[in-house]
């Protein structure tokens, strides 16, 4: 709880979102794509049965490289939040292989603190389309967690658009609070979209409790 009257402008209840490109990811992405497609060949429900395995338990160098990148990104995120004490977590990760027509419905990630996605392969060729002009194949959309917060927004007010849409590219990593609802638009290309999603699950400590 804040006491007193702060001077000037300040933001309340922000949702911190991180988007970054991982440098030097090309060789690792090729290796990750091979590993994921080989695993999918053995396990046809690889994408939908995400809770049955943890990709980050693999000792493959490319997976361990990605694990280090994810942990570094999480540490940077926590530092930006102003968390100045030790936080322990474990990663639970799974692969997504999206073929033509595949998509993910609106959802969030319960029982986690943060969630994220790393893009291994993204389609580069989109066939001509007829019909709706607002299709954004392959994009991922995030939605304002405050219902109807944009009802009275006016032009140039940051609350006017309740949706934040990203066109990902290979080597991009996204990180967000797990409560944030999001969806993945249909892949309308014949090329594969391959990504690795993950949850950041806290190893609980009473030190995390806010001071009352």
Summarize the SSE layout with pairings.
Elements: E1 18-21, H1 26-42, H2 61-81, E2 89-98, E3 104-107, E4 114-121, E5 140-143, E6 163-166, E7 172-177, E8 182-184, E9 193-202
Antiparallel strand pairs: 1-7, 2-9, 3-8, 4-7, 4-9, 5-6, 5-8
Helix pairs in contact: 1-2
Structure keywords:
alpha+beta, 25% strand, Jelly Rolls, 5-stranded antiparallel β-sheet, 212 residues
Summarize it.
The protein is an alpha+beta fold. It has two helices and nine strands.
Structural account:
It is globular, with a radius of gyration of 19 Å. 18% of the residues lie in helices and 25% in strands. It has a domain at 18-127 and 169-205: Jelly Rolls, CATH 2.60.120.620. The strands form two sheets. The protein has a five-stranded antiparallel β-sheet with strand order 1-7-4-9-2, with helices on one face. A four-stranded antiparallel β-sheet has the order 3-8-5-6, with no helix packed on it. With 212 residues, it is of the alpha+beta class. It has two helices and nine strands. It has helices at 26-42, 61-81; strands at 18-21, 89-98, 104-107, 114-121, 140-143, 163-166, 172-177, 182-184, 193-202.
């Amino acid at each position: 709880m804040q006491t007193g009257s702060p001077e000037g402008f300040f933001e309340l209840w922000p949702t911190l979102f991180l988007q970054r490109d991982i440098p030097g990811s090309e060789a690792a992405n090729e290796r990750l794509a091979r590993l994921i497609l080989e695993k999918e060949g053995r396990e046809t429900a690889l994408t939908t049965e995400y809770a049955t395995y943890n990709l980050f338990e693999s000792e493959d160098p490319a997976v361990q490289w990605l694990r280090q990148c994810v942990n570094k990104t999480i540490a940077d995120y926590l530092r930006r939040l102003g968390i100045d004490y030790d936080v322990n977590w474990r990663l639970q990760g799974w692969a997504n292989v999206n073929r033509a027509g595949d998509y993910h419905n609106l959802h969030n990630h319960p029982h986690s603190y943060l969630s994220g996605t790393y893009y291994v392969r993204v389609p580069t060729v989109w066939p001509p389309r007829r019909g709706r002009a607002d299709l954004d194949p392959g994009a991922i959309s995030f939605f304002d967690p405050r219902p109807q917060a944009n009802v009275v927004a006016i032009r140039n007010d940051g609350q006017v658009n309740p949706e934040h849409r990203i066109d990902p590219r290979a080597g991009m990593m996204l990180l967000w609070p797990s409560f944030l609802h999001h969806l993945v638009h249909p892949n309308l290309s014949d090329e594969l979209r391959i990504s690795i999603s993950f949850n950041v699950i806290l190893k609980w400590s009473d030190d995390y409790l806010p001071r009352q």
